[in-house]
Design brief:
The protein is an all-alpha fold. Among the domains are: 95 residues, no CATH class; 154 residues, no CATH class. Helix content is 77%, strand content 0%. It contains 16 helices and no strands. Helix 11 packs antiparallel against helix 12. The radius of gyration is 33 Å and the shape is globular.
Length: 403
């Protein structure tokens, strides 16, 4: 036998493992894996490019399809706050379409009664439009007859510079050619064109409102058929259907809360504006209060429109810039205190969304669909947040919208 034949190789499995190493391995094994919904999805550069292109294509399609999408979305959103009334009538053994008819007739009746109450003031105000236009024309003529101010001098200097840049080169000794006479402006034609465009826009909005109300009526009459179809489309899995129903229920609650926030503060703004303008002696204070409360449905922009309209009415009625400024200040103060104070607090409590994200959304939808976009922006953001809260792939959107 050789000397090495009696040497037994050590068993590596028998080597004792350090206690620190074993404890560390046990801790690593004991740590549970992070839940899949806590990790943000990672995209490659190609996927990000595809997502960006798809988003731009969707925005362009939404811009082009505005005449179709706006009444569709408005009708669906309007059906949410009216559904509880139809459901209550159904419990009283009123057929679903019969309850929907009663609710829509009641809604039209409230709008018609409001218009009837303000009918006399509106007729009187329209009858005074020619006189108001005459006063405004005289005020502009009087301002033009006065000595030109700094702004007029700056404008004249800019016109001279434009003539100097656009004038052709002149040889030495050649007489200076007189500038061609400027074409006379036609303010009357411009005003008529503006009125025509606004009238066409008002008729378009009226048609869209009619289409939205008809869609709302059909949605109320069909009951939960739309919800059942959405749950069926979600898939055969019971979990997916449950999540879909939860999303629809949350959207229902969010839209109902938004409509309450939209109606309540705006009615309060209209009433307080009416009382305040009546206290300062502005004619047709009730009409202007209803106007301010109605246009305040447009966030931020409605306050400016209401203040300018009330200021112009006060200036035409009283002829005093101080009283016009006071009337405008009243409108802005009431709209700011209630619209940006009470309404913002109620929206934050109801929807728990980031204020900056909501403001950016208002700007985006206002650019996309104009006035309709300002009205529909907040409920659309609330719907988007409700979906993002339950879809793992929409984690970035959830974090952007969360308060």
């Amino acid at each position: 036998m050789s000397g090495t034949s009696g040497i037994v190789a050590p068993d590596k499995s028998a080597i004792p493992v350090s206690r620190d190493v074993s404890d560390r391995a046990a801790e690593v094994a004991a740590v549970p894996d992070a839940p899949p919904e806590a990790a943000a999805p990672r995209f490659s550069a190609v996927e990000i490019a595809v997502l960006v292109l798809a988003s731009l294509a969707a925005i362009a399609a939404a811009k082009i399809a505005e005449p179709f999408l706006v009444p569709l979305i408005a009708g669906i959103l309007l059906a949410y706050p009216l559904r509880p009334a139809v459901t209550a009538l159904e419990r009283l053994r009123v057929p679903r379409f019969g309850g929907a008819t009663l609710v829509m007739v009641a809604l039209m009746g409230i709008a018609g009664a409001s218009a009837y109450v303000l009918h006399d003031d509106l007729d009187d105000a329209l009858a005074q439009l020619p006189g108001a236009a005459r006063k405004i024309r005289i005020a502009f003529e009087r301002e033009a007859a006065q000595k030109a101010g700094p702004i007029a001098h700056v404008k004249e200097a800019a016109e001279e510079l434009e003539r100097a840049v656009g004038a052709p080169a002149r040889r030495p000794g050649e007489p200076v050619a007189a500038p061609p006479p400027a074409p006379a402006p036609a303010p009357g034609a411009q005003i008529q064109s503006f009125v025509t465009r606004q009238t066409a826009g008002a008729l378009t909005v009226a048609g869209q409102i009619g289409v939205a109300l008809l869609l709302t009526y059909f949605l109320l009459g069909t009951g939960d058929a739309f919800r059942r179809k959405c749950a069926r489309i979600a898939g055969a899995s019971l979990a997916r259907r449950r999540v879909t129903v939860e999303v629809l229920n949350e959207i229902d609650a969010q839209v109902q809360a938004y409509m309450l926030i939209l109606i309540g503060p705006n009615v309060l703004i209209g009433v307080l504006t009416w009382l305040a303008l009546a206290a300062v002696g502005l004619p047709y204070a009730g009409l202007w209060g209803a106007f301010v409360g109605g246009v305040h449905i447009l966030p931020y922009v409605g306050t400016v429109i209401g203040a300018v309209a009330v200021g112009a009415a006060s200036l035409v009625s009283n002829g005093s810039l101080a009283e016009a400024a006071l009337a405008m200040g009243i409108v802005v103060a009431i709209a700011t205190a209630i619209g940006m104070g009470l309404a913002t607090w109620m929206q934050g409590r109801a929807c728990r969304m980031n204020v900056v994200a909501v403001y950016v959304g208002l700007i985006f939808f206002g650019w996309l669909w104009g006035g309709w976009g300002l009205v529909l922006a907040f409920p659309l953001l609330a719907v988007l947040k409700s979906i993002a809260d339950r879809v793992d792939a929409m984690l970035p959107i959830r974090e952007l919208l969360a308060a």
